[in-house]
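Notes from hallway chat w/ T.B., transcribed later so I don't forget. T.B. wanted the structure written out for a chain they're using in a teaching module, and asked if we could keep both sequence and structure tokens in one place. Agreed to drop them here.
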Amino acid sequence: MERRNLSGIYILQKIEKSDKQIPTCFEDCKEETQDEWLDSLDTNALKNLSKQLGKRLRTIGDQFDIVVE
């Protein structure tokens, strides 16, 4: 999978066949890694994550003039 680094929300993702972890944008992580990380967040952190993702979607939509009807 190509790493796009769109959201700016980085979490540590384990490298396959290694004990190392690398900072990886949320949307570039495997779904399993996303689920584990989301399960660790409290309500306030989930709200902040949602707001950050919303802002980034808005920015991308504005930049490329994307509107879904």
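Follow-up for T.B.: The chain has two helices and two strands. Might be a good example for the class.
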